[in-house]
Specification:
Strand content: under 5%
Distance between the termini: 5 Å
Structural class: mainly alpha
Number of strands: 0
Number of helices: 15
Length: about 475
Amino acid sequence: MGQIVALAAYAYQALLALGLLLLVSRLLPAQDFTYYSLFITIGQFGSIVAFEWLRFSCSRFYPGTDETAQRSVILYSFAVCAVLCLLVGAGISVSGVAQAWIALSATLVAVLQGGTELHLTMLRFRQDFRLFSILQVARASIFAAGTVGGAVLDPTLAGAVAGALAGYVVYGVAARFTGGAFATGLKRPQRGLLMKHLTYGGVSSGASVAGILALLGLKALLTAVIGSSAAAGALLALDLLQRPFNLVVSALQAVRYPDLVTDYDREPGSPTFRLRLGDYYALLAGCSFVTAAAILCLLAPAASWLVKGELRASFLLAAPIVTVLALLRALVQTLLPTPAHLMQRLRPIIGLAIADAVLLNLGSLVGWSLSAGSLTGLLLGGTAGAAAAAIMGVPLFLSMPFRWHGLTLGSALAALAIAGFANAGVPQTSLLVSLAVFLLCIPPAVATVGSLLQREGASPKTS
């Protein structure tokens, strides 16, 4: 049941993350929430720049045939990157480019987020799902409690950031005593292994940097052309509605991708692997479509009592478009480049990510210009750019043969279509729409649980 428990931990984290955003948006003034949203995105960007290459290399090579050698490369590399990250943060604070406390706080958030994420990744790929689930839940809970506590005591950007930092520190102490030390039995990193990690991890993290830059560029554009206060509702939609997709695909990748890597390395061209690859694709795509359908059904009723009144109008205007945008980006960032990651084809990985970032922001600018500066036009242009990037990624997706069953995927697509038409204003009875979407979502949900249980039975060491 290890994989099921891990999925439950991701679901808990997703719900808590959504609740945290809504609480912070209520506790902070609109302008402070805009700055908080930008601060969190910048902290994530710093973490990705400094440490994401390690997480990617870990997900492809750890534990490998020599776990101690792999762990030595990963942990020594993390220590060096953490020092460099702190030096960069100190340099920015001294230079006056940003306020010293903001620069140092963002740097600490980047280091702490990168370190905790790397630790959890190592647990996942060792297939220690029980401990991974415990620490995943603990990190989400402690971070949320710290951020909300800071915002309650001091309802400003500084209060929320101080609470977030305190949460990370408390979690780090708890993880050290609960999860034990990974630094035992280390040896000097092997040069060849280090270069292998750097090459694959560097290119893969470059793709993640491009992805976060795309989002950061869109947020900066929104803030610049609409204003920090007016953009708060749209920024809340961007932050809130991307999280379910990110967490759904992350959860499925967490429990299925390690086995897929092992299967590919052992039998890359076999019919069995093609079936498992198709099953993995169907899980990612089907659950992403179901997530989008559920969000579109729940937008209006949920926003009426969850979103603060002053943000509600711009949130509801932006949310349906942002849902489609988030769905497209989830597919571009996770599903479409899977063959390139398995085959370690570096150019398509970085090429697709750069195309996504460029087309998203270029489309946003074009949409904003053609619509005479409207929020809707800007977001529709960005969504069109994301769709163009997805189309560009289809040949890469089809480059590795696979087999999948289309029935559950068709059911998920039908649920998304019904929810989309209803949200666009097609006359429908709300209850009937929700019921139809719910019924159509049952086959993908059953297929997901069945696939996980079947894989559990085939892989005893994941339990």
